[in-house]
């Protein structure tokens, strides 16, 4: 008994090993690069997580990324990653302002062309995420405190991470000024 396969079916079966090989290689590349300490942080001030920001404009804008976070509202550092682990950017801030280093140059020595300076972390987030983020509220929550929403914001859910293995979730909504903004943050403490 002989089977006759259509030309499309034969091509698919012949290409299947190549497709599976590509999928296997892609899965190997999903490892995030080792976390670079940009500050001399302690384990109590170091987190990893995800952020999702939705801005109710027309059309709706959305920003989502994975991140590593170190420090405090006054001085800190953050690295942003794609879901495949590629570094998108890194940011550092202190009393003198905030600096954003974009792309694969993040953390590298030659950053002059990819580095942007802002007066504050809020200015940086407004420019690149479309909304000024409530940084103090996020850090208060991350440290297990009872966060207070700044003017115009409400906290709709707050479950802080209680230990190093648990992921916490914060949901907050900015109602004023318009446009409406929804912020969701998931994070957990990390150790080196």
CATH fold descriptor: outer membrane lipoprotein receptor (LolB), chain A
Total DSSP helices:
3
Total number of distinct structural domains: 1
Low-confidence stretches: 15-35, 105-111
Kindly report the average pLDDT value.
79
Q: Please compute the radius of gyration using only Cα atoms.
A: 21 Å
Strand content range = 35-45%
**CATH top level label:** Mainly Beta
Q: What share of the residues lie within helices? A: 10-25%
* CATH homology group: Lipoprotein localisation LolA/LolB/LppX
Termini gap: 63 Å
Largest sheet: 9 strands, antiparallel
How are strands sequenced across the largest beta sheet? 6-5-4-3-2-1-9-8-7
What is the 3D shape? globular
Q: How many DSSP E strands?
A: 9
What letter string, H or E per element, gives the SSE order? HEEEEEEHHEEE
At CATH's second level, what is the architecture? Clam
- Class derived from helix and strand content: alpha+beta
Which helices and strands, and how do they pair?
Elements: H1 7-28, E1 46-55, E2 61-71, E3 76-81, E4 87-94, E5 97-102, E6 115-118, H2 121-129, H3 135-142, E7 153-159, E8 168-174, E9 181-189
Antiparallel strand pairs: 1-2, 1-9, 2-3, 3-4, 4-5, 5-6, 7-8, 8-9
Descriptors for this entry?
outer membrane lipoprotein receptor (LolB), chain A, globular, about 35% strand, alpha+beta, 9-stranded antiparallel sheet, about 190 residues, 3 helices
């Amino acid at each position: 008994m002989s089977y006759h396969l259509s030309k499309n079916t034969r091509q698919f079966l012949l290409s299947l090993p190549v497709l599976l090989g590509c999928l296997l290689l892609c899965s190997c590349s999903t490892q995030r690069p080792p976390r670079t300490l940009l500050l001399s942080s302690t384990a109590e001030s170091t987190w990893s997580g995800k952020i999702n920001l939705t801005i109710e404009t027309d059309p709706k804008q959305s920003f989502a990324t994975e991140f590593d976070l170190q420090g405090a509202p006054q001085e800190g550092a953050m690295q942003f990653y794609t879901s495949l682990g590629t570094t998108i950017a890194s940011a550092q801030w202190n009393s003198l302002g905030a600096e954003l280093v974009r792309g694969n140059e993040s953390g590298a020595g030659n950053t002059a062309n990819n580095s942007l300076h802002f007066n504050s972390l809020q200015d940086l987030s407004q420019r690149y995420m479309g909304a000024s983020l409530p940084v103090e509220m996020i850090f208060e929550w991350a440290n297990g405190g009872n966060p207070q929403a700044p003017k115009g914001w409400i906290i709709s859910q707050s479950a802080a991470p209680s230990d190093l293995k648990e992921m916490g979730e914060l949901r907050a909504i900015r109602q004023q000024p318009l446009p409406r903004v929804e912020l969701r943050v998931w994070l957990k403490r990390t150790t080196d």
